């Protein structure tokens, strides 16, 4: 008998020793990447390190604890029902997804693979528990980002086998049977050959390395009972007792689905690559040393360099020396997490300079920070911008000239009316001319106020009303003691074409109130409210407690110029006006914000 062979008697002694020393078998189980628990009489009799780590308890806190203690409340009915049916001998799924309850209260998604076993002469359940939290997260992430993916790759339970030092298969789990298709009878007869003929040498070498004390990890192929080739990842590791290798455990992971998953990921990568290369903007990815690690075709076209040349360069190589100080300041801020827009010149390979706009931000790839820059040639845009600036300046000068002329013309009209009023012989004519003069003066003031605003399409009416009321009270010599003013003004903005008639309208209403509502030294109150209603229309409400409008005046078809102006100006802003006497005069005007 050779030194590498073991007699049947010696093998039986070794097997007997393995059974006696159960802790060595537990060592094998503790090497697994999945949790393993033994449940008997509704309590946990055994749990491996992975299971303890998974739920955050110590082993001694787990052993002899009810297994349902570690199941979330919403999963209890399902898990308990499956467990009861299994103990009754009813058909139940050998593999299903559920969850565990971590000590801290969080839910951990897992996949159970269940085996019925006999433990100390009584029935029990051995559960192989795989943490699928990461798989669940990936499923959600990929479903959100790529609708074309049918589903995330599902981790199958791993096939596990125990070999003696000579390489003879002595024990396997149920996943081994399912994966390779060999029955327990095949294993007893030594007919469970899973290495194809051309890889028997590889299989023997793997066992030899494990016998020598090495832990081996390889990706290769194996065959099932039907001769079908299977892509697998193999982990082989020895089990020692007293520094002597007494067994070898091997774990096979099915890579078939993973390979399919990699193909799908590759398709996603190809799509992102197409987007990256198809971008009209130049895209640069630089590392923390500012060296380019990736660029697209647009970057090559913008700089005049080939991709190979750019990948040997860094950011400073594309900038003028005078821009380097600013670049270094920006670079450090960007790498700390800021997103920065900037402009600078790019030095092309042929020596020419190109005005460019840069959109810079930090990205993380495998947890490592990089700077992502999208650059765009803005040479033509800057030229157009200068043209627009010149055009705007020209229009601004023209607008100022128009405003100046309008202002002068209104002043001339006021002066002519003043001269004409002095020459008029009839008192009534003089009064009419003075009234017209006041109205033109008010128009000039509104024009002056609005054209001084920085944005003619966005004029704050509330600010105008406050200034106008103060000004009119001053002109009509009305103090706060005589007329108590109440303002409730929402901040509302109008375009110039609506602001001017609105200003003239309010000016006419307030002027009429100050002139006629409180004759003599009569004291009173004037309130103005401006707001938006529920239909997004603007409401102006002006009320006084003066003498009111005479009942003889037809408010719908007035003959007085004041009321006519109020009706005409309200119509000009697309609104409607309601006037009534109720312990004074109440005027309610409703109009749309935009025509």
Description:
The strands form five sheets. Strands 2-1-5-4-3 form a five-stranded antiparallel beta sheet, sandwiched between helices. A five-stranded antiparallel beta sheet has the order 7-6-10-9-8. The protein is built from 18 helices and 22 strands. The chain starts with 7 loop residues before the first helix and ends with a strand. It folds into five domains: 19-131, PAS domain (Beta-Lactamase, 2-Layer Sandwich); 157-278, PAS domain (Beta-Lactamase), CATH 3.30.450.20; 281-376, Beta-Lactamase (2-Layer Sandwich); 378-452, no CATH class; 457-595, Histidine kinase-like ATPase, C-terminal domain (Heat Shock Protein 90), CATH 3.30.565.10. Helix 15 packs antiparallel against helix 17 (496-517). The protein is elongated, with a radius of gyration of 45 Å. The protein has helices spanning 8-20, 22-30, 49-55, 59-62, 76-87, 133-145, 174-180, 184-188, 200-211, 256-278, 297-303, 307-310, 324-335, 379-423, 427-451, 461-475, 496-517, 561-572; strands spanning 35-40, 43-47, 95-101, 107-119, 122-131, 159-163, 169-172, 216-223, 229-241, 244-254, 282-286, 292-295, 340-347, 353-365, 368-377, 459-460, 483-489, 493-494, 524-532, 537-544, 576-581, 585-592. With 595 residues, it is an alpha+beta fold. It is 42% helix and 28% strand.
């Amino acid at each position: 008998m050779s030194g590498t062979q073991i007699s049947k008697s010696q093998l039986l002694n070794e097997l007997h020793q393995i059974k006696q020393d159960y802790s060595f078998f537990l060592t094998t189980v503790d090497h697994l990447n999945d949790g393993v628990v033994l449940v008997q009489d509704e309590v946990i009799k055994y749990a491996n390190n992975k299971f303890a780590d998974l739920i955050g308890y110590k082993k001694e806190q787990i052993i002899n604890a009810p297994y349902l203690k570690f199941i979330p409340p919403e999963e209890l009915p399902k898990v308990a029902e499956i467990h009861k049916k299994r103990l009754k001998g009813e058909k139940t799924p050998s593999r299903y997804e559920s969850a565990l309850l971590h000590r801290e209260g969080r839910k951990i998604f897992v996949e159970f693979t269940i085996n019925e076993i006999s433990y100390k002469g009584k029935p029990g359940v051995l559960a192989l528990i795989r943490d699928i939290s990461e798989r669940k997260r990936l499923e959600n992430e990929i479903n959100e980002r790529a609708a074309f993916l049918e589903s995330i790759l599902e981790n199958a339970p791993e096939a596990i086998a125990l070999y003696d030092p000579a390489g003879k298969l002595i024990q396997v789990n149920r996943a081994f049977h399912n994966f390779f298709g060999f029955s327990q009878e095949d294993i007893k007869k030594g007919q469970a050959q899973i290495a194809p003929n051309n890889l028997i040498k590889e299989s023997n070498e793997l066992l030899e390395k494990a016998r020598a004390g090495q832990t081996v990890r390889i990706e290769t192929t194996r065959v099932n009972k039907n001769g079908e080739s299977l892509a697998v990842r193999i982990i082989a590791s020895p089990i020692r007792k007293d520094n002597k290798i007494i067994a070898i455990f091997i774990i096979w992971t099915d890579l078939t689905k993973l390979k399919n998953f990699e193909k799908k990921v590759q398709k996603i990568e190809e799509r992102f690559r197409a987007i990256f290369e198809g971008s009209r903007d130049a895209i640069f990815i630089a590392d923390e040393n500012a060296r380019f690690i990736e660029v697209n075709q647009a970057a090559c076209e913008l700089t005049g360099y080939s991709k190979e040349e750019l990948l040997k360069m860094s950011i400073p190589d594309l900038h003028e020396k005078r821009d380097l100080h600013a670049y270094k300041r920006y670079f450090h801020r960007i790498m700390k997490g800021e997103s920065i827009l900037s402009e600078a010149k790019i030095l092309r390979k042929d020596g020419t300079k190109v005005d460019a706009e840069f959109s810079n931000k930090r990205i993380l790839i495998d947890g490592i920070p990089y700077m992502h820059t999208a650059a765009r040639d803005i040479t033509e845009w800057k030229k157009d911008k200068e043209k627009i600036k010149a055009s705007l300046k020209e229009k601004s000068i023209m607008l100022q000239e128009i405003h100046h002329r309008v202002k002068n013309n209104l002043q001339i009209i006021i002066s002519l009316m003043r001269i004409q009023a002095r020459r008029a012989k009839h008192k009534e004519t003089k009064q009419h001319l003075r009234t017209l003069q006041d109205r033109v003066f008010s128009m000039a003031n509104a024009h002056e106020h609005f054209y001084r605003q920085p944005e003619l399409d966005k004029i704050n009416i509330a600010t105008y009303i406050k200034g106008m009321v103060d000004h009119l009270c001053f002109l009509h010599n009305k103090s706060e003691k005589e007329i108590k003013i109440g303002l409730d003004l929402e901040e509302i903005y109008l375009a110039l074409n609506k602001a001017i008639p609105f200003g003239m309208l309010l000016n006419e209403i307030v002027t009429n109130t100050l002139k006629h509502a409180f004759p003599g030294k009569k004291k009173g109150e004037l309130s103005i409210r401006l707001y938006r209603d529920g239909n997004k229309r603007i409401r102006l409400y002006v009320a006084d407690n003066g003498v009111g409008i005479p009942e003889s005046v037809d408010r719908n078809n007035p003959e007085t110029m004041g009321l006519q102006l109020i009706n005409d100006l309200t119509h000009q802003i697309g609104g409607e006006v309601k006037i009534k006497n109720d312990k004074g005069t109440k005027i309610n005007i409703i109009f749309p914000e935009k025509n």
